[in-house]
Amino acid sequence: MVPDKKVCRDMLYYMKLSREIETRIERKLYRQGKIVGGVYVGKGQEAISVGSSIQLESDDCICPSHRDMGAFLIRGLSPRAVLGQYMGRKTGVTGGKEANMHMGDMRHKIVAFVSMLADTVPVAAGIALAYKMRRQPNVVLCYFGDGATSRGDWHEGLNLAAVQKVPVVFLCNNNQYAYSTPLEKQMPIQDISVRAQGYDMPGVNVDGNDVLAVYEATREAVELARNGGGPSLIECKTFRMTGHSAHDDARYVPKKLFEEWSKKDPILRWETRLIQDKVMSEREVRGMATRITQEVDRAVSLAESDPLPDPKETLEGVYADQSVEAPLAFAASFFSPDRWR
Amino acid sequence: METTTYVEAIRQGLWEEMTRDEDVFVLGEDVGVYGGAFKVTAGFLDQFGEERVMDTPLCESAIVGAAIGAALMGMRPVAEMQFADFISCAFDQITNFAAKCRYRWGAGVPLVIRGPSGGGIHGGPFHSQNPEMYFVHTPGLKVVAPSTAYDAKGLIKSAIRDEDPVLFFEHKYLYRRIKEELPSNEYLVPIGQADIKRTGGDISVITYGAMVHNALEAAGVLAEDGVELEVVDLRTLVPLDKATVLESVKKTGKVILLHEDTRTGGFAGELAAVIAEEVFEYLDGPVMRITAPDTPVPYSPPLEEFFLPKTSDVVSVARHLAAY
After folding, report:
1. Do B192 and A324 touch (CB under 8 A)?
2. Structural domain boundaries in chain B
3. Ordered DSSP codes for A170-196
4. How far, in Å, are B166, B239, B241 from residue A324 at the CA level?
5. Residue A44 — left, alpha, or beta (φ > 0 → left; ψ -120 to 50 → alpha)?
6. What angle do CA A240, A243, A246 make, to 5 degrees?
7. Is residue A66 annotated as a catalytic residue, yes or no?
8. What value of ipTM does the predicted structure carry?
9. Does B277 touch chain A (CB under 8 A)?
10. Closest CB to A319 among B69, B72, B102
11. Which of A64, A114, A223, B117 could make an S-S bridge to B84, C-beta 3.0–4.6 Å?
């Protein structure tokens, strides 16, 4: 079932916007030294987060991972706040406390992941448990990569979700590399989706570079979850078109794989399809690209002039009660008048 | 006069909170049908139903992870570690996820992780540990360790109402060995407040958990010799009630730091540093530590007996200090 025209156009828009923001971050701002830390992009994998999260209700929740820029944008984070996040600005999503894709905001029902990948899997099960206990007709989309499925938390989380039959959809971005480690050194199976059998939940694999296939598989899994049918696992097969991060030139990846997969670019594919099906004209697609470039230009210049956080904010936000003093904060006055509270 | 055991006090506190607020629920291994390995949740399943008294698979990490997820949604989960020792399996979820959510992205995680800690029951290396310091060292967590039935009940209720993750270490040796009369009306014990369990002018014994009772016993022995111990029960390690500790040390000038946890990296070291930095000029003797030795907790009675700090240790160290 093809979604309505607006959703089709929105999917193209968010894939292109993700690509543009991440290209700007990786190819320009990082190289200019304006991004102070690491950069992880989802180039070539945009269809996964966009095709899935585009269909959520506002009270549904997402637990994204580090190659899911589209999901963050769809849930309502602004390009300026995302760029501010990368640049360590006070106006960034986490006000400078966190780096790159570690963004979250419960007002948008986005959970910030931690670097210990797969930790969000049991957390997603817990969010879904809360929906179930409160009789809320909502679902959680939980994203992770192929490497994360090797971790114990992944298995504990899927098992608990399956036993409790909670409304969560597990989405695997199988981009075939965990940093430099290829799939065959990561697991003895070809399809991650077969892991679902161990938890008696539906497990499917789809072409992760086909936004419509991702949309459709997610739609079925979300419907099942919303109707009390419990969790599902969707494996989206794709390819990481970059190194693990901006400092990694991926020389360990055979060149021919990049060439092969560049022909399957999810944005080009969707664009071509929309033009073929007369959902959009070529002119409209070009217009969209121009608008996105301008939008990102504006966001970059705003983020660059946004303020950095005040050093004193280092001490803020550890506990709800700001008067709680950490036990290690002793004899503050000897260092400088306000070195520690 | 009706008395209540330490374990029953915790049970009552949980029960009252679950009755008061339907967002409170418990999850863990064998907490439902079986009522918990130590029967802290006995009777809960019948009263509150299986959604709010959730038997989980054997998966400490997912138990805490799921509690975090539910807490992010505004629920008030109370996760049980069947033995506090098993908390190591959930270390990552606690220290990296729960502890850092608020700081990283402003999301509160109001959850409680409770579990029986401590030795003295011949539990061996994996059913006797005192794992509090792993968590004391992680900013963002609160760490509570009550020593009496009154405190245990009041503190578990405060822990459940707290906006941040609280680790609640119940001393299993105390579960059925101590009891007292509890107020019939509802009460809370605030997190972050120490309690002077016995006042005295000669030596401060700063301690928590089961060791409070050894300190009190030692105080009784020493009083006959005219040496007055002041027993400061921390009740909460994080946040530390520094004011009460420092006031006591200023008054007595001599201090014993006592805990059942092992020595190196134990809370006594932290307290010694705080005391040295802030009230050095009031000290009339060396700051003394009484702790378990740096070994795993052994099983056989003579070994475990040797391992655990004893009342006689407090008495002899106090005599040494009194004569100083």
Report:
1. yes
2. 4-180, 195-322
3. EEEEE-SEETTEEHHHH-S-S-GGGGG
4. 13, 6, 10
5. left
6. 125
7. no
8. 0.96
9. yes
10. B102
11. B117
* Residues facing B204 on adjacent strands: B230, B255
In degrees, rounded to 5, the angle at the alpha carbon of residue A132 between the alpha carbons of residues A127 and A138 is 70
Question: How does DSSP assign A29-71, residue by residue?
Answer: ITTTT-S-S-----TT-HHHHHHHHTT--TT-EEE--TT-HHH
Closest CA–CA distance from residue B60 to any residue of chain A (Å) = 9
Q: Where are the domains of chain A?
A: 5-309, 310-341
What CATH number does the domain located at B4-180 have? Answer: 3.40.50.970
Angle at A193 between CA A189 and CA A197, to 5 degrees: 95
A124-133 confidence digits (pLDDT tens): 999 999 999 9
Best of B26, B103, B111 to disrupt the A interface by mutation (most A CBs within 10 Å)? B103
Question: Closest partner residue to B65 among A61, A126, A326, by Cβ?
Answer: A126
Cα torsion A256, A257, A263, A268: sign: negative
Give tens-digit pLDDT for A77-107.
999 999 999 999 999 999 999 999 999 999 9
Question: CA B24, B43, B235 angle in degrees (round to 5)?
Answer: 55
What pLDDT does residue A312 have? Answer: 86
CA distance B220 to chain A (A): 31
Contacts A134 to B, Cβ<8 Å = 73
* Predicted confidence (pLDDT) at residue A338 exceeds the cutoff of 90: no
- Choose among B222, B174, B191: nearest CA to B322: B222
Contact of B152 with B146, CB cutoff 8 Å = yes
Which CATH fold would you assign to the domain B195-322? Rossmann fold (3.40.50)
Contact criterion met (CB < 8 Å) for A127 and B140? no
Buried b (16+ CB within 10 A) or exposed e, B40-49: bbeebbeebe
pLDDT value of position A322 = 77
Tell me the nearest-neighbour CA distance from A166 into chain B, angstroms. Answer: 11
pLDDT bucket at B300, cuts 50 / 70 / 90: very high
* Known active-site residue A247: no
Q: Which CATH superfamily includes the segment(s) A5-309?
A: Thiamin diphosphate (ThDP)-binding fold, Pyr/PP domains (3.40.50.970)
Q: Using a pLDDT cut of 90, give the percent of chain B over it.
A: 100
Which positions in chain B touch A328 (Cβ < 8 Å)?
Answer: 270
